[in-house]
Amino acid sequence: xxxxxxxxxxxxxxxxxxxxxxxxxxxxxxxxxxxxxxxxxxxxxxxxxxxxxxxxxxxxxxxxxxxxxxxxxxxxxxxxxxxxxxxxxxxxxxxxxxxxxxxxxxxxxxxxxxxxxxxxxxxxxxxxxxxxxxxxxxxxxxxxxxxxxxxxxxxxxxxxxxxxxxxxxxxxxxxxxxxxxxxxxxxxxxxxxxxxxxxxxxxxxxxxxxxxxxxxxxxxxxxxxxxxxxxxxxxxxxxxxxxxxxxxxxxxxxxxxxxxxxxxxxxxxxxxxxxxxxxxxxxxxxxxxxxxxxxxxxxxxxxxxxxxxxxxxxxxxxxxxxxxxxxxxxxxxxxxxxxxxxxxxxxxxxxxxxxxxxxxxxxxxxxxxxxxxxxxxxxxxxxxxxxxxxxxxxxxxxxxxxxxxxxxxxxxxxxxxxxxxxxxxxxxxxxxxxxxxxxxxxxxxxxxxxxxxxxxxxxxxxxxxxxxxxxxxxxxxxxxxxxxxxxxxxxxxxxxxxxxxxxxxxxxxxxxxxxxxxxxxxxxxxxxxxxxxxxxxxxxxx
Length: 542
What we know:
This protein is α/β, with parallel strands linked by helices. The chain has three domains: 4-92 and 171-250, Rossmann fold (3-Layer(aba) Sandwich), CATH 3.40.50.300; 268-355 and 441-539, Rossmann fold, CATH 3.40.50.300; 370-439, no CATH class. It contains 17 helices and 25 strands. The strands form six sheets. The protein has a seven-stranded mixed beta sheet with strand order 18-21-22-15-23-24-25, sandwiched between helices. A six-stranded mixed beta sheet has the order 6-9-10-3-11-12, sandwiched between helices. Helix 13 (394-407) packs across helix 14 (424-438).
């Protein structure tokens, strides 16, 4: 057991605000065992490790969402054992969870002030509520959001920012942030970090859970590494190299992909022309080739996710057309003949039958049957492959689910474990496995590694390589520019609903991508270079 009590914090010898001693949690088996940590006022403790290592479980114990099976805590020197999240919040301990806790049917203002709505004689004072909500939104750079907007009308990234704003309270003593930037763009991440710096200056202690190691190096004072429910390392963040931290997390070296060459692309598999829906997606043209990964970058609200939803038939297009070429065939009976649709597919089922799959950004509400086991969630994308004459071939279904679960290193007690009991990152792997089973010609990936640790990311990237080598075509949305630059062969940038440019591997920089993302609309895109000395290669279509 490693105790962090003996490690110097960034705030010197101030009385600890939170002390954890020997914390453990058992379900069917121990998931957390003997964790001891100390958090000082104004300190940021980075908590990292693989999916299923115990990070979320430890966070939930601290915030009253689940009781510890053993061990104890002290808050400000007093015994601390919250029986609920509400009790923890009353004591100044708050958490921004990886899975959003907003009420989608309520407005932004109602979510921000839930439990403390201004009222008089039992009637809510809406003008006061909206004014207070606007102040809270302004603290994190969300002045453009109307407090009266229903949360369901916001994108996932904007909902994440609202969830963060909800927990930025003046009486906060300890704030737990669980993967807070997984759905944020660089600009929103910078706004969050400004708030973290301000909270540190006011003595708020922060537990920051993240797999983005470059973020930890930016804001953390100490880093604690969990592996298999145990604390394996605690050290000052200064001077820690990313590669050694990864090795402590996963127990093996993980290689960087940033210097990889461009894959050799094949023929066009999918052609999109003039695809649009209102002002959200406006007349997008692109070509997607077999054997390549085409990335989509842009700010939250730029139309990235909405474009994928149009291509998948989840929303109806107002204009445009989609053509699927013969490309790569598949082993599950999907047609490899050229197909053309005016507008877009009538439904996701029609898109799936045509050979298109989607890894959704919101796995819980759109991607998984949470009460069902891993086995069912993986094989449901192609039941014909595990059935004969209308009867399920159980042995084959179990064999396929077991193979894919092992391929993606899903941490579980077995393929019969309910998906709802898995960590967020392992749930994402199950969604990914489903489309590997379907063997689609085109795979749409919307934030496919959200909440997935670096070791698991390497596994998913290796699977993308395998699929590309087999001639599959992938269109990938990510808020992490480093990920896009490491994985993709080309990167398209969305801004104001338009595809404003596509950059080739070897001819982009992070600054170029960010500049394009902020370029606005107007229908203009940069012209392709006239000579090799031109700094960027950009065109409006692939």
